[in-house]
Amino acid sequence: MSESIVRALKCRECGHEYKIEPTHVCEFCFGPLEVVYDYDKLQGKFTRELIESRPQNMWRYKELLPIDGEPKVGANNGYTPLVKADRLAKALGVKELYIKNDSVCYPTLSFKDRVVSVALSKAVEFGFKTVACASTGNLAGSVAANAAAAGLESYVFIPEDLEQGKVLGAAIFGTNVIGIRGQYDDVNRLCSEVAGKYGWAFVNVNVRPFYAEGSKTLGYEMMEQLGWKAPKHVVVPMASGSLCTKVDKSIKEFIKLGLVEDNQTAVYGAQATGCSPISKSVKDGTDMIHPVKANTIAKSLAIGNPADGYYANQVMKESGGYAEDISDEEIITAMKLLAETEGIFAETAGGVTLGCAQKMIESGRIPRDESIVLCITGNGLKTQEAVLNEVNKPRIINASLKEFDVLAEADGVQ
Amino acid sequence: MAVTVRIPTPLRKLTAGADEVSIEAENIGAMIDNLEAAHAGLKERLCDDKGEIRRFVNVYLNDEDVRFLKGRDTELKDGDEVSIVPAIAGGC
Fold first, then answer.
1. Partner B contacted by A114 (CB < 8 A)
2. Which homologous superfamily is B2-86 in?
3. Which residue in A27, A291, A377 is closest to B10 by CB distance?
4. Which end of chain A is less crowded, N or C, counting CB atoms within 10 A of the terminal residue's CB?
5. What pLDDT score does B9 carry?
């Protein structure tokens, strides 16, 4: 199993192919480049038994990731629980519900550890010494941590108003954190120009085609953990729209390789109303994505000009899925619902996913009697500001049994 | 009036490696036409068959995406800076 099945980078717009190198846009039409594979080389060789015999991390699917041989960075990343969420299912009035819980992804508690380990492994293969990213927060932490563990220099660029947990969660790794006055889209634009000037591996610029492939492992795990089955419905949060397209790709690849049967999986996207250009396009029945100025507490999803929006739109349309968006208040309500029913503290984006799923279940877009997977991609401890004033404060008493008795009596404890 | 246009890496083969070029133009549409006149081949990279700016091309006037202004009709004045930037991803 040593031969790589990676064939080339291919433009999604015009189909022009490029050799494997650190580049991300088609020189001809500016379309995004995507890694393409010769799946035929894997026929009969990449089996359930082989995968199951390997350690529980994302590299158990390494043949379907664009690296040469063994991973250079993040060898332990990935493989998060798929939680059968019966209490939440009851609250939503559905029969079969699962949470793919990447809020506990190793090592930085978001699904970004998947994409970063592929991007940095590739960066090391290409010979880069410095890695960088434009980030809404989770990516910054993951790049910083994985770079530190691999002995790489790193620069992470973030909007200056990010949540404290995300800034700290990057800075602790000794990275260079650069706060940009403006929104993520401004950070993104700067990074595109920085990437052109400095010889660094920008995980979501010049090594983005490799980086994005890492997201597929979330989908692979989901299917393996369902007992080698694709769900009927899967709901993902959308910022750039990349995860939506990669979960869809992961399912198609497993079907092609005979690892799961085609279950006609419908892919659904979730956004916050304050930044919902992709959801709006789906709901309006168009494939034109109109950029917006983002304004939402779901900062990890606050990308007003989503690079993969068009493709995410196509995935939802072609798979029979749909998209929704919810208000900031609904995000908080959903975060609390997930925490109180399943003991999972998701970040704001998790609230978006659950809240939008709930809305689509209530509107009949997602049927109540078929399997549903919700993808939770980040941890609530990093976005504490969102719920700081929404939860009960501790009640302070002295270390006195009498005082506790008074309190317990007031609570009606028997 | 002359504006400065910042050229992204993938297009520099067409500008003999220059990362900035100076262009005379009244508005963004004319700027693209004049870029084409100076550096043949640039327009088809930036615009589709109908002359609309391609889906994956972002054009910024100073710090504002021209899609939030008047698109191709966005007026330019002396000393303006225009950036051409391919769309890139982050978040999920």
1. no
2. Beta-grasp domain (3.10.20.30)
3. A27
4. C
5. 80
Choices 3.40.50.2300, 3.40.630.30, 3.40.50.1100, 1.10.10.200: CATH for A82-108+215-386: 3.40.50.1100
Ranges of CATH 3.40.50.1100 domains, chain A: 6-74+112-211, 82-108+215-386
Closest residue in A to B87 (Cα) is A307
How is the beta sheet containing A233-237 ordered, strand by strand? A82-84, A96-101, A371-376, A233-237, A266-272, A323-326
Q: Do A307 and B54 touch (CB under 8 A)?
A: no
ipTM for the predicted complex:
0.71
A236 inside 8 A of chain B by CB = yes
Contact B90 A135 (CB under 8 A): yes
Q: What is the pLDDT of residues A138-181, one digit of tens each?
A: 999 999 999 999 999 999 999 999 999 999 999 999 999 999 99
Q: How far is CA A24 from CA A9, A10, A166, A246, A362, in A?
A: 9, 10, 27, 16, 40
A13 and B8: CB-CB below 8 Å? Answer: no
Please give the mean pLDDT across all residues of chain A.
95
Contact A349/B at CB under 8 A? yes
Query: Domain A6-74+112-211 falls in which CATH fold?
Result: Rossmann fold (3.40.50)
Report, as an integer, the average pLDDT of A82-90: 98
Please determine, for residue B92, whether its predicted confidence score (pLDDT) is greater than 80. no
Q: Helix, strand or coil for residue A275?
A: strand
For chain B, what are the domain ranges? 2-86
Partner residue opposite A196 with nearest CB, options B8, B45, B89: B8
For A11-39, the DSSP string reads ETTT--EE-SSS--B-TTT-PBEEEEE-G
